[in-house]
Amino acid sequence: PVTAATLRIYLDTDVAMSLKVWPMANDAWTEAGTPPPHEFGPSDPTIGTVPASEPGYVEFDVTDYVATQLAGDKVVSFEVGSDWTSWRFIGAREGSNPPELILQSGS
């Protein structure tokens, strides 16, 4: 079983902001198709909110959500948001600092 799960997102700016991660129930989207609708607003419960003000990876503890998803459909989807108006500072999977989902398991 998964004993720890960490979502790491690279931020490439020194602009102070807060990054948020929500659990996304809709796994039925693809990158080639229409992106999923935003499911959450500023007041919806998040998995986590992390302040950031310098370049580097920002980490979220997503252990409980990942464990729930692995017990169900085994697909994990997140929605990422911020209080900043630009997404150009978030590392994409095609870049040199892609998002990472790090899983630790134990017996």
Mean pLDDT: 82
Q: Looking across the biggest beta sheet, what order are the strands in?
A: 4-1-6
Return residue spans where pLDDT drops below 50 for at least 5 consecutive residues.
Answer: none
Q: Could you give the order of the helices and strands? A: EEEEHEE
Biggest sheet features: 3 strands, antiparallel
Model description:
The protein has 107 residues and is mostly beta strands. 8% of the residues lie in helices and 36% in strands. It is built from one helix and six strands; from the N terminus they run E-E-E-E-H-E-E. A three-stranded antiparallel β-sheet has the order 4-1-6, covered by helices on one side. A three-stranded antiparallel β-sheet has the order 3-2-5, with no helix packed on it. It is globular. The protein starts with a strand and ends with a strand.
Could you provide a short overview of the structure?
With 107 residues, the protein is mainly β. The chain is built from one helix and six strands; from the N terminus they run E-E-E-E-H-E-E.
Descriptive tags:
single chain, 107 residues, mainly beta, 3-stranded antiparallel beta sheet, 1 helix, 8% helix
